[in-house]
Amino acid sequence: MRSRFRSSLRPEVAGHSRILFRLAQCVPFTIILVGLGIELSPAHFLYTGPLLTAMPALAALTMGPKGTLSAAAGALTVSITTTTLHDAWGGMQGYSNLLGLLVVSVASVVTSNAVRRQRQTELDQVRRIAVAAQEVLLPPVPARLGPVRAAGMYLAAEAGAQIGGDLYEAVQTRYGVRMLVGDVRGKGLPAVRAAAAVLGAFRESVHYEDDPAEVMNHCASALQRQRAMPGVDQEVQMEGFVTALVAQLSADTPEVQLVNRGHPPPLVLHHGKAHPLMPTTPLPPLGLEDLITGPPPEAESYPFAPGDRLLLHTDGVIEARNRDNDFFDLAKAMEAVNAVTPQEFLEQLHPALLQHSQGHLADDAAMLLVERLNEEDGTCARQREGEPRGQQD
Where are the alpha helices (DSSP H) in the chain? Predict the structure, then answer.
């Protein structure tokens, strides 16, 4: 499993916050220009010295040492220029103004640098804790699981590198290789608790339930128990849900069985062409069982031959947008990848996703890729035939 952390809020929140922050950074320089305009205008009798002296301290609130130093240099330039133009070097007022500006500038730069270092230390500590917690919640996917090769990748979009609610797992059992991918509604600790409950139920039930639909039912029951625990927020109890997908691959049949509970359909790459495995009967996410009015959910089977690749993912992948507000074309990106192993496949898909979204994911993104091997010698069919990947007809 590869973990990549990104500091990015949702588009509407991030855009508004960035604009306000940029405006706040411009305030000291705007005031400096206003002070210069006053000094060069007929209203130069107004005393702007204290106003300019405070600008380095104001800049230190929103900028680092370099920005603070730039504001100090601007204020100093204006003070020297106006003092020279008005021939005010003979009085003590000009010298005291420059001395005060120098003292405030030095103190502001030193303070800004100290705060910057402290924040960086705290952020590094948060990242280390987040990585350790994620390793416990989402351990690395084994590179080989029975008849398939596998790889996983998680990209968190929460500010400060917090763990989100995306989850996945791949386990080899006596029934075959079983996989889970899911996405919890919401963020923060409630999402992590819901993800842990679903993952725990999956890891236990996959070893004794022969029907993938029953595995999904255990996950739903675990989520209901977690939501009913004392102290859980009422909004989580009423509106919390998890989209989930359970997949099963057996060594003796060239197919994959899926149980989809409101999750984006996985994609199969077959002979260089990617297509989604759409469910015949759409089902609601876990936690919304009251909306199921028909017969109990059953697993649906789809062809999955040796050499095929199956990509399970969360909506953070397909809902990534570019500057034109276009969604990420995951199928097209998969067809363009030319990689030997599943891990290399995800490592090539990852930069394509970030390039499309300008490096800022709006939501957490998780991907789990498996490739069926040839039953005879345990190799991929395309490897045996010597054909480059992603270029078959």
Answer: 11-40, 49-53, 55-60, 65-85, 92-137, 188-205, 212-227, 234-239, 315-318, 330-336, 342-356, 381-385
Residues 6 or more apart from 164 whose CB is under 8 A from it? 156, 157, 158, 184, 187, 191, 363, 364
Q: What is the pTM of this model?
A: 0.68
DSSP state letter for 160: T
Distance separating alpha carbons of residues 20 and 23, to the nearest angstrom: 5
- The pLDDT, as a whole number, for residue 374 is 80
d(CA 274, CA 310): 9
Q: In what order do the strands lie in the sheet with 166-173?
A: 166-173, 176-184, 242-249, 255-261, 300-303
Helices (H) and strands (E) in the chain, counts: 12, 12
Bin 314: left if φ > 0, else alpha if -120 < ψ < 50, else beta. beta
Among 5-19, 256-270, 287-301, the range of highest mean pLDDT:
256-270
Residue 234 pLDDT grade (very low, low, confident, very high; cuts 50, 70, 90) = low
Listing DSSP states for 82-137 in one string gives: HHHHTT-TTSHHHHHHHHHHHHHHHHHHHHHHHHHHHHHHHHHHHHHHHHHHHHHH
Q: In the chain, how long is the greatest CA-to-CA distance?
A: 96
Residues 281, 265: Cα–Cα separation, whole Å:
12
Q: What is the pLDDT of residues 256-281, one digit of tens each?
A: 999 999 999 999 999 999 999 999 98
268 three-state secondary structure:
strand
Our CA angle for 342, 347, 349, nearest 5°, is: 95
Residues 6+ apart with CB under 8 A from 370: 145, 148, 149, 150, 170, 177, 179, 249, 309, 310, 312, 342
